[in-house]
Amino acid sequence: MTAAAAAGSSTSAPRVRANQLGWLPGVPAHATLVTDAVGPLPWSLMLDGREVARGLTTPRGHDASAGLDVHTIDVGPIDLEGDGFAIAADGAVSDPFAVRADLYAGLARDALRFFHLQRSGVEIGPEVAGEAYARPAGHVAGSPHGGDADVPCLPAGHAVTGDGVDLYEGWTGSHRLDVTGGWYDAGDHGKYVVNGGISVAQLLGACEWVGGTVPLPDGMERALRDEARWELEWLLRMRVPSGAQYAGLAHHKVSDERWTPIPTLPHEDPQPRYLHRPSTAATLNLVAAAAQGARVFATEDPEFAATLLEAAQASYAAALRHPDLLAPNTNVLANAGSGPYDDTDLRDEWYWAAVELYLATGDERRLEELRASDCHVGGPVDVFADIDWQRVGGLARLHLALVPSRLPEADAVRASATAAADAILATQAGQPFGHPYAPHDGRYDWGSNGLLLNQLTVLGAAWSLTGESRYRDGLAEGMDYVLGRNALGVSYVTGHGARSVHNQHSRWYAHQADPRLPHPPRGALSGGPNSATPDPVSAAAVGGLPAQQCFIDDIGAWGVNEITVNWNAPLVQVAALLAGAVRPAR
Questions:
Q1: Paired strand residues for 89
Q2: TM segments (predicted)?
Q3: 550 near 533, Cβ under 8 Å?
Q4: CA atoms within 13 A on the CB side of 478
Q5: CA–CA separation, 59 and 61 (whole Å)
Q6: C-alpha dist (Å) from residue 281 to 178, 349, 391, 461
Q7: pLDDT, tens digit, for every residue of 247-267?
Q8: Does residue 401 sit within a domain?
Q9: Is the N-terminal amide bond of 263 cis, ω within 30° of 0?
Q10: What distances in angstroms separate CA 157 from CA 174, 339, 412, one per listed residue?
Q11: Of 95, 185, 227, 562, which is the active-site residue?
């Protein structure tokens, strides 16, 4: 199968692969040429058909991750601005693109607006993203089975495998909670504390340190705070009430009893909803996010900040009482109705919670705990490898480096962050498509685009800490891959690029399944290539292909083409950093 077919494109992508959105003026620009030519080839940069730069390509040989023979094109900084740029080489011409200082402002806003469109428990009006995306409130009182306004605990015996194993060991609870609100996690109706935790933390980080590094686009800080508060208030509702078993812990998730078909809009969901057993991981996510929220909202809303900090401290105490209550892998059930988000190594979650509480309070006990963690500087855990919902140590270390505190070893923490960024730049330099994601086994993981973007947040943090432009330059080049400089020549962000994906796995952005419904909104990031191709659609279409080609833009390909809040969150950070990365060219 050709790369174009794998991407679901009706025409072949041009052999010159470039960021389809464009480049920033004054920042080194790059592209990749697909060719089996052995020697260097001439290239030309065109603006409205007029040549404005030229040079020779650099042969890079066979890129195993892409399954292609390639050259790289290093254009250097461009001091012009315009919308009609293209690169020509070896008889091929790239898709047109722009060079503008404000290139990423629209993407930053769109990536953030995605969260508003994922809101549960509230009507989405046409003013948010247009009439096509307007919908009634989902999972509210009056919805089938009562929605999320009065949710019971999962009854005992509802999580028994075919082998007779009860994943929750007989657990249930007599309490019911109003867990209205929050974000739908992905393309289904589940809401998960561990995925919400890292996502809201990164939106808070966009306020706390991204906004201190570059000026945010107009109105974005207000929108960031509004979205963060929406999720934080939901996290607080997920706590087990006083007097119940596991009081103070956070329920791991609230979800449907069974998977719903595509399409199913939130307000039409017919499934009963249940609270799943609390987990230590979910609780520590709540602790960390609430403590960070207490810092961010301290000036704007001291009362809300105090509520968040009180909840963080109380739930931390509850986690100490139940340090190893793990969420099971519910995927082993025949029809689980929700993702498991299971995790057996909580060292990073404990570190993250202690870090955020220390940064919020200066508490010496939390300082002792974070310094004793395997995830702290000098410890055995490489916290910056594959930052994700299941590996949050790197996020904690970045916040410890970026947020002012009295930490005695602050210089060592900051040095560890910049050293990680240097390693990322070194990896990036070896990749002909300019991205820093290069697993040792050559296989791309689930959500590879999210993992890549989290590596870029490390570069952004290093740029914030040092002001060195090489980190900014690496940040910009890494984004090229997401927006079209890849083996398939596809932009993985809907509405941004000439060949952007538009059939991501979703139950309500489901135009492919029902033409009356919309495609995913502008700014929605696809999870991207996944070597495992775990769903039947991608397995049949692209299974076994080179890593970068293990992707298809199909609504049924949930293993490679889903949308989730935790992948869009680093997109918000990176796009916001790039939106303020340069001043307009003169």
A1: 43, 92
A2: none
A3: yes
A4: 34
A5: 6
A6: 21, 6, 11, 25
A7: 999 999 999 999 999 999 999
A8: no
A9: yes
A10: 14, 18, 50
A11: 562
One domain for residues 538 and 495: yes
Q: Are residues 83 and 125 located together in one domain of the fold?
A: no
Give catalytic status of residue 505 as yes or no.
yes
Cβ atoms < 10 Å from Cβ of 51: 10
Residue 548 sits in the same domain as residue 457? yes
Quick one: pLDDT band at residue 364, thresholds 50, 70, 90? Answer: very high
Give φ, ψ of 128 to 5 degrees. Answer: -75, -55
Token readout for 42 is 């001439």
Gap between the Cα atoms of 70 and 290, Å rounded: 47
Other CB atoms within a 10 A radius of the CB of residue 91 amount to 9
| Residue 397 maps to a domain | no
Going from the C-alpha of 425 to that of each of 80, 431, 458, the distances in angstroms are: 26, 10, 10
Q: What angle do CA 299, 303, 309 make, to 5 degrees?
A: 90
Asked if 46 and 73 touch (Cβ cutoff 8 Å), the reply is no
Q: Look up 553 and say whether it is catalytic.
A: yes
- Candidates 505, 519, 535, 554; catalytic one: 505
502 has catalytic annotation:
no
d(CA 396, CA 388): 12
Max CA distance (Å), the chain: 74
Calpha distance 475→483 (Å, rounded): 13
Q: 422, exposed or middle or buried, with CB in 10 Å at 0-12, 13-18, 19+?
A: middle
Note whether 127 and 88 are same-domain residues.
no
Residues 192 and 329 in one domain: yes
Integer CA distances (angstroms), 434 to 61, 429, 528, in order: 14, 7, 16
In-domain check, residue 78:
yes
Q: Which of 499, 432, 541 is nearest to 2 (CA)?
A: 541
Nearest to 110 by CA among 190, 17, 217, 265: 217
> What is the enclosing helix (H) or strand (E) of 316?
helix 302-321
Same structural domain, 230 and 327: yes
Give the helix/strand (H/E) hosting 400: helix 393-402
Question: Alpha-carbon distance 196 to 115, whole Å?
Answer: 11
Look up the CATH number of the domain holding residue 422: 1.50.10.10
pLDDT tens-digit readout, 512-565: 999 999 999 999 999 999 999 999 999 999 999 999 999 999 999 999 999 999
Q: Do 415 and 362 fall into the same domain? A: no
Question: How many domains in the chain?
Answer: 2
Domain containing residue 352: 118-198+225-378
Residue type, 127: E
List b or e across 113-131, with b for residues whose CB sees 16 or more CB atoms inside 10 angstroms.
Answer: bbbbbbbbbeebeeeebee
pLDDT, mean of residues 125-143: 97
Q: Which one is catalytic: 148, 445, 553, 554? A: 553
141 and 188 share one domain:
yes
